[in-house]
Amino acid sequence: MGDAIVLDSHPGHSNTCNRPLKVGIVGGGIAGLYTALYLQQKGHHVHIFEGTDRIGGRVHTHYFTPDRDQYYEAGAMRIPKTDFQDIFFDLVKYINKPLLPEKRINLIKYVLSTDKNLVFVNGSLRPETTASNTTPAMIGWPDIDEKHKDMTAGALLKEALGRLMKKIAPPADFEPAFKKKIVDKWDNFTFRYYCIKKCRWTNSLVDFVETMTSQTNQFNLSVPELVMQSLDFGVKEWQTIDGGMSRLPELMAQRVGLENVTFGARVTGAVFDRVVLAIPPAALRMIVDRPRWSVKKEVAIRALHFEPLYKMGLRFKTRFWEHVDPPSFGGQSTTDLPIRWIVYPSNGIPVEDEAHGQEHDQSGVLLVYSWMTDATNWLPLTPLERRNVALNCLAQVYNGKKDRQGNNINVYNLLIESADHVWSSSTATGDAMFLPGQFKEHFEVAREHEGRIYFAGEHLSFHHTWIAGAALSALKVVEDIIGVKDLRPLSDDTPTHVGFGDQPIDLSFKFQPYNPMYSGTQSPSSPFSEYMPVDVSRDWPPKGCKHLPDNNNRGDGDEKGDNIEKNDGVEQDKASKKEAKAPPQVTLQTKLPNYLGMLDKSALGVVCSKNTSYYAVGSWDMGRVGFR
Ligand SMILES: Cc1cc2nc3c(=O)[nH]c(=O)nc-3n(C[C@H](O)[C@H](O)[C@H](O)COP(=O)(O)OP(=O)(O)OC[C@H]3O[C@@H](n4cnc5c(N)ncnc54)[C@H](O)[C@@H]3O)c2cc1C
């Protein structure tokens, strides 16, 4: 790798590195992609290893059909227009800038709530009220004193959070004020404790406000967590991406270059030179073949708390929620049923004169959304049971409601199909939401790098639970890697490329021996195979790559493995242990095509048996990916 000169003269974008770095990034969510884009823009070489066959992580639009508006957001779906989210809006500008107008990301209005949305609590529909305008008296909530019984849930929450919010409101500088006035003072306490101790509420009043404004047990999170979350939810203007939020990570990946992304590469060991682990703690914990870090770091990785999240999208023959009285054009209905929230799509809302005129009989998708304990409850059910529960709940809410022709709404008859995502079963398990003590004890240590290993992900930002948080954590990682403070986020005024010239990257892949335990596991058949139809069983090395002759290269079929690290990460059965002396290592020179993610087991098996007759691997078995 040759020397290079600093080329960046853009203010705030100076680069103290004098050579292009080769950075491996584990995780193709927003944090990994943002890190990759920024480092590339600075002239560094990146390669993303994504464990699944899909880019975007928790930004995940499920498309039922390719037709317009026939999708639901299984992950992120809405962005508040606040200063904290500037990094998101800037990123959209950055991505859009070089694109043709018809390819650009189009932000549309997202309706958070309307006064027509329904409230279904304590067994019946409350048509006269919205969730935040409901008082304990209206719905017969037990054990509420005279002073509070006619106060709305919204006003009560404002009362509780108001004095805390004031301490961090502008002109105060958010981060120092948040640390000093909120974290230092209140981090060891739950928000429930704060409401009881400071606001003199009863537990029953806390339960009422939590039921109407959030979901079960959220108020047992730390005070700073509730403050942080309320900051962003307190605004009126919201936006979403027309055509689905997944458009953002997909376009980011295209900009990074699909040849720089390997799919189906669940990393299980880390032997990197310089690497960014842009994965949630639950996934990091499962990388067992890695260095042990300080006690505090290890505790932080174990402890940082994630809450489960659950969403189901249901596609119906009509957008019946827009036809009933009162109609819901966007926003969400609040229930205390297992589904908790019914979220109506903000995309595809008919324009006003149409809405009041003709009947809309086009199909549409709504989603049900549970958080925390309410999300956990879906876990033990089968997909069919989950759909039955969701339909039963929707039927209770829409019982007796009629469409414009006067027909009863029958959700069972109207359903076309459904899909859901139990985030507790994914590598992320949900979203970061901190318990008492975690901002103070774990947050800073969790985001510090360990030598040349860096950590990114939404949980490592003050604004966790947001896409913006993931991007902010990535920005910090880039600052740490290149040794520059206060980098400006990517935006439409970011220079397209500040490089060190076109340097080839040497990538070195070590393949684990085939583990019979995994036989029969599904092959990560990548949707990208059409772009790169390389069959390495016939064409080795793949076009554009060549073996690099070096000491570590086991491309010669030598099964002694003299210069190769012994495989210690994967359990093998006795038979294969006898034969397997060491894993083969194949060193390739770039521009490396993105071939690993699309190969099936047999193809890779052939490659490896060409090198040694003992090994067969599938890309999901690829335990170690190394950068030299
Ligand atoms: C249901 C839900 C609703 C949300 N709503 C919103 C919203 O409305 N607005 C908003 O701004 N944010 C929202 N969020 C939060 C937002 O989606 C996340 O904060 C953000 O996308 C997280 O990005 P990340 O890169 O930190 O993590 P992730 O998106 O989780 O990315 C991590 C990636 O790493 C991969 N990976 C894990 N382990 C390995 C391994 N060993 N090897 C290789 N790859 C691995 C994963 O497959 C994944 O692709 C929501 C999240 C959820 C789940």
| End-to-end CA span | 11 Å
The hetero compounds bound to this protein are: flavin-adenine dinucleotide
Beta-sheet strand percentage?
A: 5-15%
Mean pLDDT: 79
- By CATH's scheme, which homologous superfamily of the largest domain applies? FAD/NAD(P)-binding domain
Domain unit count: 4
Q: Assign the CATH class of the largest domain.
A: Alpha Beta
Oligomeric nature of the chains = single chain
> What percent of residues adopt helix (DSSP H or I)?
25-40%
Can you tell me the overall shape?
A: globular
Largest sheet: 7 strands, mixed
Number of strands: 22
Biased composition (Basic and acidic residues): 540-581
Domain Amine oxidase: 30-482
Protein name: Amine oxidase
Family: Belongs to the flavin monoamine oxidase family.
Question: Can you give a write-up of this model?
Answer:
Helix 1 (30-41) packs parallel to helix 8 (247-256), helix 3 (153-168) crosses helix 6 (203-213) and helix 10 crosses helix 15. This protein folds into four domains: 1-61 and 245-303 and 432-506, FAD/NAD(P)-binding domain, CATH 3.50.50; 119-233, Guanine Nucleotide Dissociation Inhibitor, domain 1, CATH 1.10.405; 309-425, Polyamine Oxidase, Chain A, domain 2 (Alpha-Beta Complex), CATH 3.90.660.10; 518-628, no CATH class. A hairpin with a 7-residue loop joins strand 3 and strand 4. The strands form six sheets. A seven-stranded mixed β-sheet has the order 8-7-14-15-16-13-17. It has helices at residues 30-41, 86-96, 153-168, 174-186, 191-197, 203-213, 223-233, 247-256, 281-285, 295-303, 352-356, 372-376, 383-398, 411-414, 438-447, 467-482, 574-579, 601-611; strands at residues 22-26, 45-49, 61-63, 71-73, 79-80, 107-110, 119-121, 124-125, 238-241, 261-262, 275-277, 306-307, 309-316, 332-335, 341-343, 364-371, 415-422, 431-432, 453-455, 506-510, 585-589, 624-627. The chain is built from 18 helices and 22 strands. The chain has 628 residues and is α+β, with helices and mostly antiparallel strands.
